Amino acid sequence: MIYFLAIGSAVLYGAADFTGGLTSRRAGALPVVLLSQASGLLIVALLLPVLPHASPTRPDLIWGAIAGLTGGVGVALLYHALSIATMAVVAPTTAVCAVTIPVVVSVVLGERPVPLAVAGIALGIGSIVLVSRQTTAQAEPREPTSPRKRSSGIGIALLSGVAIGFFYLALARTSPDAGLWPLVTARSVSVAVFGVLGLAGKRSLRMPGRVAALAAFGGIIDMLANALYMVAAQQGPLSTVVTLSSLYPASTVLLARVILGERLNAWQITGVGCALAAVVLIVSGGR
Fold it and tell me: With contact defined as beta carbons under 8 Å apart, do 38 and 191 qualify?
């Protein structure tokens, strides 16, 4: 049952990323992130009364706030990258960076990764090089509102991965007794930050009704993915749960291929495969 929860979180994470990227192409990343984060906050607030009692400490809430800041930035960058670039390239690149960050921090703190994790890091770097290769023969997506030519988005994806990696680190510092309260704090912080950014920049947050509904739906499934992941991680072996949950780019890639008709050249197909394999190697090596 635990492994099904972890697999479910991976599927939902990937679907949420695809939805966020798709809606960002129509309305921009800022309003989409704000609405999706707010809808996620609403869902987790509704879930709390039906979940077992939790006793979060002040450090739990502080780490949750840090997770909200880093995760919010990471998601905003990810949605922007997904909106301007090929989703099947952006998603694996971000995932590799997000998994690599905790490994690097653990090395700095004195841990030594096993050869499997080292191989995964090397493979991840190689995958980034491969997915960055563009050819003139690459087909354009069927998305009617997409730009004339897609950017590679690799730089933004890398920054997004770094931010999401620190999001994972922050959540890892919370205790199991905290339940979902760190997620409540995280979403509250991210909603406040992006709300202020929207007001300060005098950016219009309006969007068509169908786009708004899709963005809200993406936020809901993203929060459900977080909930599934936390429950699975609290009850099962962390290395296995994280490995399964980190396979979310496969869901994004599949949706982009089926719905948008995104096509990759041979180098990029190899790079996507290497990136997915690197995620498994890095996390498995952290056992």
Answer: yes
